[in-house]
Structures are given as structure tokens and as C-alpha cells.
């Protein structure tokens, strides 16, 4: 008869405990090591590429240094001073120089419409109102401007659907 090796329960327990004690630290610490590596790599990558702050908006001096915006400013000032020929020249120069803002382009066209309407150039006035709307689809005259007896009718013709 063949003899099978007999292992006493105490010996089996010791042998089992020994094998568990060797495997337990590795199996138990693997998730911890992975978590530490992920945290460390995140920290290092965060240090390597710090977020850049948003760019500051250009100031008035920056805008005035641009030819188009400077010409627009001069055109607005000339218009407000009642120098309409000079205003027209400055506003056309601003548009030709390429105003960056759609709102600025609409403003230049609006003031050109006012100048051309007051000098009895109604078709050009209407064309300037159309150009203002093309530059900025949200363009609209203020209530007092829309009610003006000279350019109000031209604006209403252009604004009508």
C-alpha cells in the first residue's frame, strides 16, 4: 500500500501562513504604490506646465497706436465737433485700415450714414446703414437716433424686413 505523506494540521497551518505572509504585502501594497505613482506624476506634470494667465485686454493707448482705431477716434471727435468733412475722411480711413471690432466698423458706417444723409446723399446713407448691419448684425440705432428727421426715414427703409 502506498503511503501518502501526512501533514499534520499544525504543519499545514504554518506552511499556509508562511506562503500568505510572503504574498500578502505585495498584493496589498500594489494599489497603494499605483496611487502614489499617479499622484506623483500629476504633481510633477502640474509643476512642469503652470497655467498661463489670461492676456490683459488692450488699453486705450494700445488701441490708439493702431492706425484704424486711431482714425476712428479722430472721426468720432471730428463728428462731435461738427467737422463733418474731416469726420468723413477719418471714418473712411478707419474702415480702409481695417477696424478689428465689428462694433467699431458698425459705428464708423453709422456715422458715415449720418454725414451722408445730412449732405443729401440718401442712397449712400442707406448703403452705409446696410454696411453697419452687415458689419454687426446686432446693429440698431438708439430710439432718439432712429427718430431723427433726416436719417431716420433712410434707416427705417433699410431696417424694414
Strand tally is 0
Order of helices and strands: HHHHHHHH
Which descriptor suits the 3D outline? Answer: globular
Oligomer: single chain
Radius of gyration: 39 Å
Q: What top-tier CATH class of the largest domain fits best? A: Mainly Alpha
Count of distinct structural domains: 2
Helix content: over 70%
CATH topology name of the largest domain, in short, is: Serine Threonine Protein Phosphatase 5, Tetratricopeptide repeat
Q: Identify the CATH homologous superfamily of the largest domain.
A: Tetratricopeptide repeat domain
Instruction: List the uncertain runs.
Output: 7-21
Largest sheet: none
Which percent band covers the strand fraction?
Answer: under 5%
Distance between the termini: 110 Å
- Number of discrete helical segments: 8
Q: Give the overall pLDDT as a whole number.
A: 80
